[in-house]
Design brief:
By secondary structure, the protein is α/β, with parallel strands linked by helices. It contains 16 helices and 14 strands.
């Protein structure tokens, strides 16, 4: 099939490369010439394991190309797949108008009966809005819209896209099912079909539920820390309950960062408010998560007292392992706070991420994790890079005299066995 993928940041570059890898003829379209030029050289805008190689394979096979020319990209496409990352501000409010503007100004280039599949994160009701505008401006084109919520995970996106457990798609008509079956047939036959508004709402509901699960177990963990219980043992007990189950999203650890989960929670809050509904549970998720973000701060003060002049090592800066993005990273937020407290900060990250401009001359970037520990009285395990599990505890002991380690997710639990390390994790008392 001839497919145009619109919006070439993380979701778009992954979608384009994966569709080409299963045999589709794909054109990636973006108005940002810098992004397009890099993709033409197989340089994706976001670090994702294997993505550069997959893009290169698609280009070499002449099944994948990138352009800023909308007319060339769209006019022959059977499907326009909208994959813009919806911009989010610091309060997790999404700029949905950006996506609407980018899509609507391209509708004139579409052929008759083209299917537009939207995966950008937009509030429920957005597809109806697209349909109404399209019907008003281009009634002769019979443009059809469908919705499929994205389900990618930074660092694992190729595997998730090419081997999904299921794909959710909301459509209006049988014709859309048939064409989208052709599109996704080489990837999966497990498609969960539903109405458009139901698919839009399902995305909100999934992310809000995951956010609620995280905040619930972390509130349980905070109680455990104060009564001598181990939250991870409680987690095992919870998951043994058949009405909850072993796959439940219930692991005590760090708060969730802003972005995907927070964005959908804000969507639901806004929708509820606009319909005069009272949704106290959904509103409380964000408040609870914001409070849990302070776990590291509280622990650092409790253990070290004042932080001024004290050297703190931080392992991991990126939003997640396997990527180079710092956008909405909890580690970055924490380092900014450490700066405000007057701490000396030494950071390490395996990626080639660029440090924030305000860290210049203030934050030391270490070449190795062990180098960051030199002179440090505390270590924060901020991002769970697998490289850190290769470090021997004995090597750490040779560098430090005494060291306090703060590991929210119990990622490096072997550190708890060292006689010179005081180890702290979420859900376990001091």
């Amino acid at each position: 099939m001839k497919v145009c993928v619109l919006g070439l940041w993380h979701l778009g570059s992954v979608t384009a490369a994966c569709l080409a890898s299963v045999g589709h003829d794909v054109t990636g379209l973006d108005s940002n010439s810098g992004i397009v030029e890099k993709l033409q050289k197989a340089e994706p805008p976001v670090s994702e394991p294997g993505l550069d190689d997959l893009i290169r394979e698609g280009i070499n096979a002449d099944r994948l190309r990138f352009t800023t020319n909308a007319k060339i990209a769209i006019s022959s496409a059977e499907v326009l797949w909208v994959t813009y990352d919806t911009p989010v501000d610091e309060n997790d409010q999404a700029d949905v108008e950006f996506v609407f503007e980018e899509v609507l100004k391209l509708l004139s280039f579409l052929s008759i009966d083209t299917t537009v599949l939207v995966s950008s994160q937009l509030p429920v009701g957005s597809i109806r809005r697209f349909e109404d505008i399209s019907a008003e401006k281009y009634p002769e084109k019979n443009i059809r819209f469908a919705y499929s919520p994205e389900n990618l995970r930074l660092g694992k996106s190729l595997d998730v896209f090419l081997h999904p457990d299921r794909v959710i798609i909301g459509v209006r008509r049988q014709e859309d099912r048939e064409i989208l079956n052709r599109l996704l047939g080489p990837i999966t036959d497990n498609i969960l079909w539903m109405g458009v508004e139901s698919a839009e709402m399902t995305k909100h509901a999934i992310n809000a539920f995951l956010g609620m699960s995280i905040t619930f177990i972390n509130e349980i963990a905070s109680i455990c820390e104060n009564i001598g219980a181990d939250a991870h043992e409680v987690e095992t007990g919870l998951k043994s309950e058949t009405r909850i189950g072993p796959a439940a999203y219930l692991s005590p650890g760090a708060a969730f960062a802003g972005g995907t989960l927070a964005r959908d929670i804000e969507f639901l809050k806004d929708i509820g408010s606009s319909n005069n509904l009272v949704n106290p549970l959904i509103s409380a998720v964000r408040k609870s998560n914001d409070e849990h973000k302070k776990w590291i701060q509280r622990r650092l003060f409790a253990v070290l007292g004042g932080l001024k002049g004290k050297r703190i090592a931080v392992w991991g800066l990126t939003y997640k392992p396997g990527t180079n993005t710092l956008r909405r990273s909890l580690s970055v937020e924490m380092c900014n706070w450490l700066q405000e407290q007057g701490a000396e900060i030494a950071v390490h990250d395996p990626s080639k991420c660029e440090l924030p401009d305000n860290w210049l001359g203030e934050v030391v970037r270490s070449k190795t994790p062990l180098e960051a520990l030199e002179g440090a009285c505390a270590l924060v395990i901020a991002t769970q890079w697998p490289e850190y599990r290769e470090i021997n505890v004995s090597d750490v002991e040779n560098i430090v005299g005494q060291l306090a380690v703060f590991d929210s997710n119990r990622f490096l639990s072997d550190f708890n066995k060292s006689p010179v390390i005081s180890y702290y994790s979420v859900g376990v008392g001091a």
